[in-house]
Amino acid sequence: NLCCFLGHSFHRAAGPVFTPSSLVVKYGDPAFATCVACQSDCDESLANLEASGYKEKNGSTLKWKVSSLTEWKSDPICYYIDHNGTQCCSTLKVTLYQMPTNVSISVLNHSGPMLEKSQYNLVCEVGDVAPAENLTVTFYRGQTELGKAQYSRTTSRKPENGSFSLSLNATKEDDGAQFSCGAKLELGPEGPQRPLVVRSQSLTATVHCKSKENPLSSVEKGTLRLNCSAVGNPNPSYIWTLPFRGPHFNDGVLTIETASSQHEGQYNCTVSNSVKTVSVLFNVKVQSK
Ligand SMILES: *[C@@H]1O[C@H](CO)[C@@H](O)[C@H](O)[C@H]1NC(C)=O
Ligand SMILES: *[C@@H]1O[C@H](CO)[C@@H](O)[C@H](O)[C@H]1NC(C)=O
Ligand SMILES: *[C@@H]1O[C@H](CO)[C@@H](O)[C@H](O)[C@H]1NC(C)=O
Ligand SMILES: *[C@@H]1O[C@H](CO)[C@@H](O)[C@H](O)[C@H]1NC(C)=O
Ligand SMILES: *[C@@H]1O[C@H](CO)[C@@H](O)[C@H](O)[C@H]1NC(C)=O
Ligand SMILES: *[C@@H]1O[C@H](CO)[C@@H](O)[C@H](O)[C@H]1NC(C)=O
C-alpha cells in the first residue's frame, strides 16, 4: 500500500486492500476485483475507486467489474482519505495479455539450400503479442532447444511485433532437420496454468556439402574457365550462382570468354542427381596484366 501525498503530511497506514492483489486477464475476458478502502474507524464517504467500467460501493467496500477488458492500461486505483486529510491509495496491477496472432520462422536474407560450414541467421517473427516484456522466444531443431531470445528494448503494454534471431552454423547433420520457434508468455502464478505457447510451422533445411577443395581460381585477362563437371550416375544437373548479374549456366564447365574485374567473386556450382547434391565454391580473382 502506498499513502499518497496530500498537503504536507505524509505517512503510511493500513491503506486500501485489493482482492485479488493483482490480476492477469486475457484480452476481451471479464475482470473482477474488490477493494476494502479502510480497515477500521472509517468514514465511508471518503472511500473511492478510480477505474473505468462498472463500480459498486457498499460502505467502504468497492467492487470493480468489466465484462470484456480491452483497455491496455486499466489499473484501478482505490483510495481513502483519513481524518488527518492523508490520502492512502492502492493500485491493482492488471496484466492484460494477448497471444501472438502469428509466429513464423525463416532464414535471414536467404532462400534455397544452405552450405555446410556457413553461417546463417534464423529469424522468428512474432505478431501482436502483449505484454511483450513477458515473451520468450525459443528456437528448436526438431525437439532440441537451440537458444532463447527476448525483447532487448523497453516495451509498452500494448501488443507489439517482434523479430528475434539466432545464428546458425550449418552442418551436414542439419540437412533435412526441421527448424521452428515457439513464442511463450510467462505470466507468473496469477496467470493461466496451461502453457501459453504458439509454435511456428517448421522449416526444413537443405544443407549442401562443400567440396573439400575450395579453389582460388585466377585468370589472366582472357578466358575464365571453371570446371565442376562430375561423373555421375544418374547424370547430374548443374546450377551456377554467379557474383554478378548474368546469363544462366547449366553445364559442368562455365566459360566466360573475356573476363574482367566485374567477374570477380564467389561462384557456386551445385551438382545434383537423384542420389545426392554437392556444392563447389570457386573464388575468382581477375588479374590485370
Ligand atoms: C452491503 O454490505 C453489508 C455488510 O457486508 C451487507 O449485509 C449488505 O447486503 C450489502 N448491501 C448490498 C446492496 O450488497
Ligand atoms: C505471418 O507472418 C508471415 C511472415 O512475417 C506473413 O507472411 C504472414 O502473412 C503472416 N500471417 C498473418 C495471418 O499475419
Ligand atoms: C537483409 O536484406 C535487407 C533488405 O533486402 C537489408 O536491408 C538488410 O541489411 C539485410 N540484412 C543483412 C544482415 O544482410
Ligand atoms: C504488426 O504487424 C501487423 C502485420 O504486418 C500489422 O498489421 C500490425 O499493425 C503490427 N502491429 C504493431 C503494434 O506494429
Ligand atoms: C560458427 O563458426 C564460426 C567459425 O567456425 C565460429 O567462429 C562461430 O563462433 C560459430 N558460431 C556459432 C553460433 O556456433
Ligand atoms: C513480466 O515481465 C516483467 C519484466 O521482466 C516482470 O517484472 C514481471 O514479473 C513479469 N510478469 C510476470 C507475471 O511474470
TrEMBL record:
SMART domains: IG, IGc2
GO molecular function: integrin binding
Pfam families, sorted: Ig_3
Record domain Ig-like: where: 100-181, 195-279
GO biological processes: cell adhesion
InterPro entries in alphabetical order: ICAM_VCAM, Ig-like_dom, Ig-like_dom_sf, Ig-like_fold, Ig_sub, Ig_sub2
Annotated SUPFAM superfamilies: Immunoglobulin
Gene3D superfamilies: Immunoglobulins
Protein name stated in the entry: Ig-like domain-containing protein
